[in-house]
C-alpha cells in the first residue's frame, strides 16, 4: 500500500523483497531516501542500515 501511495503522489519507487537485494540496490541506484522494514528475509533492516553506513552510504533511512 505504501508503494502505491508514494507512486500516486509522484515519487519514483523501487521495491525489493529482502535485505541482500536492498543493499545491492541502495549502493547501485543511490536513492534520495530508503524505507526499510525492520523484519526482512535474510538480513534485517537494522543490519542493512549498519552495512550501508559502514560503506559510507549516508542516504536517509526511515524504518517501518
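-> sequence recovered:
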Amino acid at each position: 500500500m505504501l508503494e502505491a501511495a508514494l507512486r500516486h503522489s509522484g515519487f519514483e519507487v523501487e521495491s525489493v523483497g529482502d535485505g541482500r537485494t536492498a543493499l545491492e540496490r541502495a549502493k547501485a541506484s543511490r536513492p534520495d531516501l530508503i524505507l526499510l522494514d525492520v523484519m526482512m528475509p535474510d538480513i534485517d533492516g537494522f543490519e542493512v542500515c549498519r552495512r550501508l553506513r559502514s560503506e559510507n552510504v549516508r542516504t536517509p533511512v526511515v524504518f517501518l
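The CA atoms of residues 38 and 46 lie 6 Å apart.
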